[in-house]
Amino acid sequence: MDIRAVVWDVDDTLFDYTSADRAGMRGHLAAEGLLAGYASVEEALTRWRQVTDEQWARFAAGETTFEEQRRDRVRVFVGEPALTDAEADAWFQRYLGHYEGAWALFPDVLPVLEALATSHRHAVLSNSSLTVQERKLRVLGVHDRFEAILCAAELGVSKPQAAAFLAACEALSLPPQQVAYVGDHPEIDGRGAAEAGLLSVWIDRGDWRATVDPPSGPHRIMSLAELPAILGADTRFGAPSSFG
Question: How far, in Å, CA of 221 to CA of 105, rounded?
Answer without folding.
Answer: 18
